[in-house]
Structures
1.
Amino acid sequence: MNQDLTVGKPSRVLWNFCLPLFGSIVFQQLYNIADSLVAGRFVGENALASVGNSYEITLIFLAFAFGCNIGCSVIVAQLFGAKEYRDMKTAVSTAGIASAVLCGLLMALGLLLGRALLELIQTPEELMADSLLYLNIYLYGLPFLFFYNIATGIFSALGDSKTPFYFLAISSTANIAVDILFVTAFRMGVAGVAWATFLCQGVSCVLAVAVVLRRLHKIEVPAKPALFSGGVLVRLARIAIPSILQQSFISVGNIVIQGVINGYGPGVIAGYSAAVKLNNLVTTSFTTLGNGVSNFAAQNLGAWKLDRIHAGFKAGRSMVWLLCVPLTLAYFFAGKWLLLLFLENPSEAALHTGILFLRILSPFYFVVSVKLVADGILRGVGAMGKFMIATFTDLILRVLLAIVLSALLRDSLGIWCAWPVGWTVATVLSLVFVKALKLGKKEAV
């Protein structure tokens, strides 16, 4: 059901809209968590390390899909809020065509350069074959990833956060079952967890696209919309490209950090792979809630209800802080037991690495969550320059400090300490930008 986010008490509207988004991202993360969990427990520590190693490269491709999602979502939300439905439909078809072309190019490059990328991050020889196998199967499913993200971006723009949740709840639960079936019954190893994700994600993509097209068909317009528009593409690109660059550079930074981590051996790699999955569950949840704030801000900007945008930031901040409390407590005090979900008979190095990583990062979830809500406001109103400054500050600090501190301390501890510093500095910048935001015609795209 479509929902107008420009009416009603901002805090209540945002809570109702964002809670299904949070549920959706939990189930979305179950795809990767299930892969690591099944690989670690039913195949072995090296299999877990291989999946985790490939995961850092898959994030590059996810960055492009995420950018297409955000670009489409923000522009469609602005047009929906302004009730410009004909242009809204043109924006949808333009985003679909552009995303299909981009996806094809990325698939070709990934399949050609996959081994080179794995060598670039110093993948140990004993992990290379499984890492490349997992990566290639992931690339075969890239169209599903792109078009699912486009569909969910449109749902969110229309104020519907529940439909994607239903799709993901079913498909991600099925993914766990198929993971276990392929690995234990069919003895497919790392290939099994990859193909399980491929199949289940494909089903959710097809269903999401079919429903969103039906939903759009019901919205009547006075004249047939254009299938493609260069002007609309420019508007989409102004939002999508900075978001793609943000996620791409974060992924490249993570690959650099992964290269540093790989120098400490399979045990540390496995421990980090398990812990970073748990960490990404949290940060991706915050990012998704920030995306909900973006849709809220975009619709209200389109409707020219500017006072509601700052109220949306305050509501979003309260929402993520409430979420931080149980997550921080769980990761800090029960990190060992959560890691054991992934690690069967872990080495001392793997368990120590994972626990240390979670204990250092989890208290700073209160900090980074505010940044991601602030970023949602900046994206929703089109203030992409400010958004990029805060994001790149975080990334650059984390990468440089990870390299420098690990060298100075001669220990992986230095890598984990880089995260809180980058998060804190970037959060301060994002808050300054939101507080100083002057909403007017120049902020819209």
2.
Amino acid sequence: MAWFFGIDTSNYRTSAALFDSESRRWHNAGRLLEVPEGRIGLRQSDALFQHVQHLPERILELEAGFGAQVAAIAASTRPRAVEGSYMPCFLAGAGTARSMAHAQGVPFYTVSHQQGHLAAAALSADALALLYQPFLAWHLSGGTTELLYVRPDGPLFSADIVGGTDDLAAGQLIDRAGSLLGLSFPAGAQLELLADACTAREKPFRPKVNDCRFSLSGAQNKIERLHQSGAPRETVARYAIDIVGSAVMEATRQAVQRWQLPVLCAGGVMANRRLQQRMRDAFGARFAEPALSGDNAVGVAVLAAMLHGALHGEQR
């Protein structure tokens, strides 16, 4: 058994995780950050403070004494693995992980939050081999709507943005629609339940997609007008989800037509079952299970194993 430990402190969730590179077993301990009622998201200073409060408890949820078995530790230290990518909330996890690695005398690795998402999705979909070859990936979350061209790059992989939104993120649109309907933040799962009860579907609005890119700001206005017209809450919820699905489907179609590569989907918005079914049917897309769709530290622990050379059987 070779355990690897990961920490992820995003703007939505505090997470700590263990990953066994031999059995591929994992254990993630995470909790959402607390957002005051009526607000959508947190200031970075508030998120950082909550991580400092919550991270020790998340680590205590893991098996006692695991440190003696850990071969390496990693933390997400920035949103994307590109120059200039930075968010203060990641400082909480990075500092804790670095200190733990020093105390244990084991290697400490830094990765990006986005790389962690992709690794978690690949593990969950039983597709770790994808991380050693070019593929297309969606990172669709509360703050990110990016279609990525992913390829091996050094010990890990790089991800270039080739499509996605030019303004509002899909998760932001979903959360704003949820707030309009009186749902708590984050609203994705609740909005999906409402949409499932829809019996009077509104004619869908399809954002224009050019070269895999689209805008969602106009969609927000459409959703607000539909709500103001007195449409049932279920209809508004279905309408909002269908807008996101339409844009993602068309951008994926354009990308697959250009690159002819497999598609992996990560991020909390991609946990939507209706969108998953459409993507599977059209493109054979692969997804993480719900526990690993949203923010988690399992992918970070997987990347620690990759950087440590402990994953076997995946060929470049």
